Amino acid sequence: MTSITNSTPIPARQLTKPGTLTAIWQTLQNALIITRREVRDSLRDWRIMAPIFLLTLIFPMLANTMTRIFTSFFETNEAEELLPALLPLMPMIVGFFPVSISLVIALETFVGEKERLSLEPLLSTPLTNTELYLGKSFAAMLPPLMASYCGIAIYMGGLILGEQQWRPELQLVIQIVLLTTVQALVMVTGSVVVSSQTTSTRAANLLSSFIIIPMSMLVMLEGVIMVQPHKRYLLWYIMLGALVTVMLLVRMGARIFNREELLGRAFDQINLKWAFRIFKDQLRGPVGDRWSVGRWYRLSVFPAVRRLSSASGVVLIVITAAFIGGWIAAGTWQIPLDDFQSKDENLLDNLQSWFELGQNNPQLIILAVLQNARVLIAATILAIFTFGVLALILVAIPFGILGFILAQVTASSLSPLPFFMAVIPHGVAEIPAILIAGAAALRLGSVVTRPPDGMTVGEAWLRALGDTVKIGIGVVLPLLLLAGVLEVTLTPRVVEFVLTH
Amino acid sequence: MIEAHELTKYFNDFRAVDRVTFTVEPGTIFAILGPNGAGKTTTVRMLTSILQPTSGQARVAGYDVVKQPTEVRASVGVLTEQHGLYQRMKGIEYLDFFARIYHLPPDLRRQRPLALMEHFGLGDALDKRLGEYSKGMKQKLALVRAMLHDPPVLLLDEPTSAMDPQSAKLVRESIKDLQRDERTIAITTHNLTEAQSLADRIAVIRQGRIIANGAFKDLLQRFVGLPLMELHLTAQLNGTAAELGSLVEVVDEGDRWLRYRTPNPQEINPQVVRRLTGLGLDIVTLSEVSRTLEDVYLQIVTEDEGLEREREIQS
Questions:
Q1: Domain map of chain A by residue range?
Q2: Is B76's CB within 8 Å of A124's CB?
Q3: How far apart are CA B32 and CA B34, in angstroms?
Q4: Which residues of B fall within a CB distance of 8 Å from A41?
């Protein structure tokens, strides 16, 4: 053996079976190797440490001075009772400023390293993508979070031990600390996603406004809630919402923080030609040269609908929950339908005149189709920006209303039959259309959080878009047309029949 | 051992690597040459399991690059195109960081960085911040990083770039040492002299395809032709070329010199000398015209460019 090879073979890194406790422990240990290095690097970087130091020590002292001035102002104007409501506002802001630095560190640690070309040696090691992701996320979060806790402690310590002698509720302190932690988590996980999709810190900084602006608005909202002590329970819901966002971002980040995405992306460039080709391929499907409507449905549209199975399951659960929720809400907000019936004896006449109007105006079919299509298109567009969440909400609302009305009808002495007859005839086409469109929108919005293996986020999204358009044209639109025809021509007659017999 | 079979990589529509096939046995050095953007780095990245091949297979140190990426990366030492060091760390900290990642036992974690740094003449720079290292020192440190876990396979991208001649010689000798210790080594380089002196086999890659692959001697014969000899006489030739025509293929001649090709110089050259002496001609020098890897490389690339133009015209 020469001097540069070892006299005995060095044992290769031991790999453990994935999913076991040992493997999880090893993953954490490996992640912490990265964390230690990165934190040490951050501590040596005065550009990071100077603002953290200032925001940790100086800003809480300034905030204390400000609070003393405000307290004096309130006391002078005999508004001391307002102070307990206003005092909790500042610790949250004191905590938020240092935490916002986690965004800068995260962008630096991911995209900065990519830009300085120091990432590839790390990617060539046996570390897994998860270990790298966790290690760097911890490193981005720890120093600012520690600074944030220190800042909060200094500020609150000043108020508690100072002349204000403030005695905050324990629940409030817990809320402030947890909210700060969750905010750091959102910013770090969000910046990982941003960093993975860019190749320069400049682009990452520009994109980070998508994180910092909503976060600042969230802090303002939290502030508004915090000054109203009886509404502070809402902060738990905000925390829950932020945690869900973190989970989605972690899922997305863990998926797209991989070697292929990090090194396969040479520069940020919009390749419209490629994007159009992917979209067109997906829209057309594997029909070959012999295109026909039948082949398109058989080989392209129906397989695309089958791909929606899990998304359809989620939509089904959500609309069922909305229906039940509407039903339950009817118990709280009751409408006196019995009185309404006795007061409006012309109900049938009114309905009949509407039915006749529909029969004389076939354009109503178009209006019905357009109305449904408009809502579903809006749901799809909103899904793109919200990982599919708003599509779910929009699609669920009508079912919540249906549940609410049905509960009102059953609670009164009215027969539920006309209600069912007003929904079922066209509902047989409309409900599947909503279900399928909602599932397609959900998939389109959420596919970015977990693109299929071997596919970039961009390609996965373009293919999901192709599927959505294909399903929209091939399945949803025909169903909506059928529902529109039934709604205008059949449903009124059925309701009329039920009401008159 | 490295085995690549029909390795292909697409980035969207761009085909970066096109059905690359080669084998590197343990104890051999394989050089991958090619113009910038030819697909060398992408090939190395696929062999390191950093990038997934679009199609084709590869095994490195017995592990599949797609199915066993962690095992592959644990068995490979990679010198990347850019050394990518952390400027604020000290040399010793940097190596300790990577030693921990490779799970080196504690005693080796201390000894091996010191031994390697001493070997490459960086013993005095252990406690210096990497930002203070010269380019050559950084390159050597990156090489130490690649050798730290004593991997059976080494993939080295431009191993001696930015180094002074003395350091480059040291690194070349170290690579030869590794070869003697049965390590499998693949280097990508633009330094053709280095490739010629180090490599047992050479592959030329262009537009993602391997357009030539073989030992230097074989490539030389295939692309540049038979060995070329140059003969200088004291007197004018006066029909000497015609006299030698039955023995060798005379390719060029001047007033008092000529050049000829022969497949077997060892056997033919003494016959040439005897014949000329018999004719009463005095020989000043008889030597082989030196042909370098550069000649071979340029010939390979030029031929491929010609073929490409033909294909374009036909299509």
A1: 21-264, 272-500
A2: yes
A3: 7
A4: 86, 88-89
**Residue among A173, A172, A174, A191 nearest A246 (CA):** A191
Strand partners, B155: B78, B186
User: How confident is the model over B71-115, as pLDDT tens digits?
Assistant: 999 999 999 888 889 988 999 999 999 999 999 999 999 999 999
Hey, where are the domains in chain B? 2-214, 226-315
Answer yes or no: are the C-beta atoms of B212 and B300 closer than 8 Å. yes
Q: Of B10, B64, B35, which is closest to residue A260 (Cα–Cα)?
A: B10
Helix axes A209-226, A89-107, angle to 10 degrees: 170
Question: Would the CB atoms of A10 and B45 count as touching at under 8 Å?
Answer: no
What is the pLDDT, as a whole number, of residue A103?
79
Residue corresponding to tokens 């190749």: A199
Q: Single out the residue of A102, A120, A268 nearest to residue A192, CA to CA.
A: A102
Q: Which CATH number fits domain B226-315: 3.40.309.10, 1.10.287.470, 3.30.70.1560, 3.50.50.60?
A: 3.30.70.1560
- Give the CA distances from residue A41 to residues A196, A391, B87, B103, in Å, rounded to whole numbers and listed in that order: 21, 43, 9, 21
The predicted structure's pLDDT at residue B301: 87
Strand B257-261, strand B249-253: pairing: antiparallel
A88 with A177: CB under 8 angstroms? no
Q: What is the ipTM of this complex?
A: 0.84
* DSSP class of A7: S
CA distance B212 to B197: 18
Residues A468/A447, Cβ–Cβ less than 8 Å:
no
Choose the closest CB to A126 out of B45, B70, B85.
B70
State in words which class domain B2-214 has.
Answer: alpha beta
CA distances for A297 relative to A374, A473, B275, angstroms: 24, 11, 85
- Asked if pLDDT for residue A343 goes beyond 60, the answer is no
Which three-class secondary structure state does DSSP give residue B287?
Answer: strand
Distance, in Å, from the CA atom of A35 to the CA atom of A58, rounded to the nearest integer, reads 27
pLDDT at A497 over 60: yes
Instruction: With beta carbons under 8 A apart, name residues in chain B contacting A118.
Output: 84-86
Give the per-residue pLDDT at A13.
62
Interface residues of A toward B, Cβ cutoff 8 Å, are 1-6, 9-15, 30, 33, 37, 41, 44-45, 116-121, 123-128, 259-260, 263-264, 266, 271, 273-274, 277, 454
Tell me how crowded residue A3 is: count the other CB atoms within 10 A of its CB.
12
